[in-house]
Amino acid sequence: MNIEIQALSISVDKKTLLDDIDLTIKPNELSLLIGPNGAGKSTLLKACSGDMPPSKGDVFINQKSIASFSPLELAKTRAVMTQSYQMGFNFTVIEVVSMGCFNYEEDISQVQKLDILQDVMHFMEIEHLAERSFMTLSGGEQQRTQLARVLAQLWLPYEQDEARYLFLDEPTSSLDVFHQYHVLSLAKALTKRNIGVLAVIHDLSLAASFADQLVLLNNGKMVTKGRPENVLQRSHLEKVYGIKAEYYHHSVAVKPSVLLDQQQ
Ligand SMILES: Nc1ncnc2c1ncn2[C@@H]1O[C@H](COP(=O)(O)OP(=O)(O)OP(=O)(O)O)[C@@H](O)[C@H]1O
Prior knowledge:
Blueprint: E1 3-12, E2 15-25, E3 30-34, H1 41-49, E4 56-61, E5 64-65, H2 71-77, E6 78-81, H3 93-98, H4 110-123, H5 139-155, E7 164-169, H6 177-190, E8 195-200, H7 204-210, E9 213-218, E10 221-226, H8 228-231, H9 234-241, E11 245-248, E12 257-260
Parallel strand pairs: 3-8, 3-9, 6-7, 7-8
Antiparallel strand pairs: 1-2, 1-4, 4-5, 9-10, 11-12
Helix pairs in contact: 4-5
The structure holds adenosine-5'-triphosphate.
């Protein structure tokens, strides 16, 4: 059980956004997508989550083509947090989080639902914001609220042995350093619950610290994928980002990071 992306290409108006991508997302791994602005990271996430149809190739979730999933089946199999999450109405935080329960709401009692909401809000440290208007929150508080919503969507195992997936587009972009680590640790912990996580991230040191599989995209193409120490090689960083930098891991007592040369 996994996600198999096979020879995936996506074109819009004759522009190729993704070109012949092959990739496996495993349920017991945290896969992080890196690459410069416009590389195709969000497009790949949308293709994996069923929000953008392939022009060529296919995406198989647990051996079934994504095109054959019903919207409810998809909602039970994967949750998605996109980059922008404007709310059309003035929802409170708890209302936003409870939207994550829509796919199983009818199967549980009100008390069970409140328990789930409490659990995920506790996880994301937003319990104190429950009755606040979402629109009045800071950027980081909004991001943590949306993360609680997608967690709620996957909180109940609907079939224990069926792998599920979480797609996160820049989940740490508005977060302070504590919450960046908190969210990526949480993403890693979810992989122990048979949930595969694919997240877009820009911070290369965070990527080096947390990825089981790191995927480097550039101009819609896969440059390389694998362990962070192999992907974050000097030659790749120079070719793709135009920076002189390298992966550095001083000792097991500290996390690895990507260090920039003094002279660029
Ligand atoms: N619907 C669309 N129509 C035309 N071009 C698009 C469409 N969606 C994305 N693109 C273009 O495809 C390229 C890849 O976009 P994408 O959002 O996947 O990049 P990204 O790697 O996520 O970038 P960033 O790091 O800036 O968020 C960009 O050049 C973007 O302008």
